[in-house]
């Protein structure tokens, strides 16, 4: 209050200098300042409102920082789990396969690490590429995973003598390198999709419906080769027949002479 009074004192002294009312106006201003101070709530220190505003602003800032950090964490997790990340796509595919098999204990204990060719159970690699997966007689349950199709270098897959149910995924037909597919003695059902490079072994699955693969072979282009072979054979036969006829005619003419 002393500083305020001094400011009022000097301001009033400047304004009222020489008119004889300086003392009265200074005293009046002093009373107004005291009334203003008395009208403030008791026990409330000066600047309390500013302190509260500062606290609210600080809380809001911390909340914004926490939200930004959370979204950043989610972005990092999504980046690491996306197909374009540095994670080996074969690992992701095989872990999905294991999930479709109900996380078999032996596979769960062995299929660890970042390289499936590094002594993963029942997997054989050639020059760093997965070529053979032999999971026969492991009491596997669940269904045949579509993610096998992501293993583009796969040459042979053996899932025989397990407890697998469901159908044979059509996606397996897109694996261009596969030459052997053993699915015998499971509990599969439905039709067998057409493979261009093999005929799956499905014996021991009574509910599996096998289509006429001979007809499928004809429709897929085998008929062209068959027709070409027939035409070649007919041509050779006619050539030989014509040559034989000429020889008989020549002998007849000689006899007549």
From TrEMBL:
Transmembrane feature ranges: 215-239
Gene Ontology CC annotations of this record: membrane
Keywords: Glycoprotein, Leucine-rich repeat, Membrane, Receptor, Repeat, Signal, Transmembrane, Transmembrane helix
InterPro entries tied to this protein: Auxin_Ser/Thr_Kinase, Leu-rich_rpt, LRR_dom_sf
Broad class of where this protein is predominantly found: membrane
Gene3D superfamilies referenced in this protein's UniProt entry, alphabetically: Ribonuclease Inhibitor
Localization (cell): Membrane
Topology class, membrane: Single-pass membrane protein
Pfam family name, one: LRR_8
Protein name, as recorded: Leucine-rich repeat-containing N-terminal plant-type domain-containing protein
Organism: Brassica oleracea var. oleracea
């Amino acid at each position: 209050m002393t500083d305020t009074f001094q400011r009022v004192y000097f301001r009033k002294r400047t304004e009222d200098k020489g008119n004889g009312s300086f003392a009265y106006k200074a005293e009046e201003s002093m009373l107004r300042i005291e009334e203003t101070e008395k009208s403030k709530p008791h026990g409330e220190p000066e600047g309390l409102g500013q302190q509260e505003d500062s606290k609210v602003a600080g809380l809001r800032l911390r909340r914004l920082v926490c939200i930004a950090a959370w979204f950043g964490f989610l972005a990092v997790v999504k980046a690491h789990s996306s197909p374009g990340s540095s994670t080996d796509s074969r690992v992701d595919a095989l872990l999905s396969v294991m999930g479709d098999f109900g996380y078999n204990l032996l596979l769960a204990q062995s299929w660890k690490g970042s390289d499936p060719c590094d002594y993963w159970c029942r997997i054989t690699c050639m020059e760093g590429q997965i070529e053979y997966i032999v999971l026969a007689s492991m009491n596997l349950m669940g269904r045949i995973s579509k993610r096998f199709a992501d293993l583009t270098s796969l040459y042979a897959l053996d899932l025989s003598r397990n407890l697998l149910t469901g159908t044979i995924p059509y996606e397996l037909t897109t694996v261009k390198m596969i030459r052997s597919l053993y699915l015998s003695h499971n509990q599969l059902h439905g039709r067998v999709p057409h493979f261009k490079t093999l005929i799956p072994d499905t014996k021991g699955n009574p509910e599996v419906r096998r289509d006429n693969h001979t007809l499928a072979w004809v429709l897929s282009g085998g008929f062209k080769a068959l027709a070409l072979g027939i035409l070649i054979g007919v041509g050779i036969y006619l050539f030989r027949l014509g040559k034989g006829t000429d020889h008989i005619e020549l002998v007849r003419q000689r006899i007549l002479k």
